[in-house]
Here is the input.
Amino acid sequence: MMSLVQKIGITRIFLNEPRERRIRRIQAQVLNNTVDIRRIMAEVLTLRVEKELRQQLDDISDAEEKDRSEVIRELLFVGIQERRVTHALDEYKGGRITLWKAARSAGVSLWRMLEILKERKIELQYGLEELRQDFTPLEG
Here is the structure.
């Protein structure tokens, strides 16, 4: 078991290590499958949830044989993506952005955005002005 002083010493050595050497060391660890790159890049996020929600998370993690943190990360990713799509569609339906810009804002391809419009039964609003706006970036 490492003492706190030893941990701090190791942290100092790691932080004082030249950037290039640190990058090479981390790359080697990733290539050798000795470290998960997601853990290096991860930040800690703390939140409070109701007991019922925590139980639902535990049920999902048990059913999928994943730890709770992994399930929460996956749910956050899906939720954020859905929120981005919903916001982009609201902007599109309000006539504030074109379909192309909505797709870019949502982080999906134009073809995927067209599929989403069809799935959600949203009418395509595309005329001559939208065509001009979509081609303007290509002209520059």
